[in-house]
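Entry for xanthosine-5'-monophosphate complex. Fields follow.
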Amino acid sequence: TWTTATFVEESIREIRAQVGDKRVLLALSGGVDSSTLAFLLHKAIGDQLTCMFIDQGFMRKYEPERLVKLFKEQFHIDVEYVNARERFLAQLEGITDPEVKRKRIGHEFINVFEEESKRLGPFDYLAQGTLYPDVIESADTNADPKSGERVAVKIKSHHNVGGLPKDLRFKLIEPLRKLFKDEVRKVGRSIGLPEEIVNRQPFPGPGLAIRIIGEVTSERLNILRDADFIVRQEINRHGLYGELWQAFAVLLPIRSVGVMGDQRTYAYPIVLRFIKSEDGMTADWARVPYDLLELISNRIVNEVKGVNRVVYDITSKPPGTIEWE
Ligand code: XMP
């Protein structure tokens, strides 16, 4: 029977046998898969592992700092923080089409990844947090005709991305490829991954950029980040974080009229998207208490400059998707 202890033990043995004294690169996103993988690899090969964390500027408030601090200071795992905020923002200038947005983010991710892995490398292996469901569906890896080993043609956490450039073909190592998500969580927990990462709600690769409808600008990013932070605070305070599959804010590019004191306002609306789901394939909008909605609405309108209205999304999936883009 499957136990986390035997899985961890066997994985460590396999990783050591495969990697030998070579170097491994891992693109760390902060999600449970790549974080568990980082912990497992670190246990197996120590400082032969380099984690690269690319900050696109689309994460939630304080998360990049927290993540880097946690990994470096608390767990002494080598994390290279790459600040690419300006580059990603420049790529999105004037872009409103969701698919173009995703593509541009994906391409820029590859560009940054390529440059940085050259700078930090050379590396022999690229570690990916591929899970069993990805393997079943997968058309995203090829076998190297010579060695038969799987090689990367796509970066997993950004599933709308094209191929990695030819001269960047690493050998792949995918220690989580036989696991389901709940098993990854168990493994992560058993090797010391903190609960805040083990229980993290899913967060899309393109991050807040696909939760800003229309053009992404630094002004809009700041507004959404602040509104999203209030959402997270109140969801946590009310003990709902673990109960909801996701709870987040979306910023719309339209403006509507409001009144603040005796002043007319003309500002953006924020959409609250709180959902329950088993696997993200289908989802129900969450029936949370009205008082909580009122509290969040009041806080956002009062504390976030540029927002004067909050609405609640009561669309399930299908027919709605979870994200708005
Ligand atoms: P949708 O919007 O398709 O989302 O109902 C289903 C689940 O997938 C997440 N999602 C993504 N995750 N990269 C990711 O890693 C992406 O580009 C992406 N788009 C959506 C979404 O948050 C939800 O949990």
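NOTE: The two ends are 41 Å apart (CA to CA).
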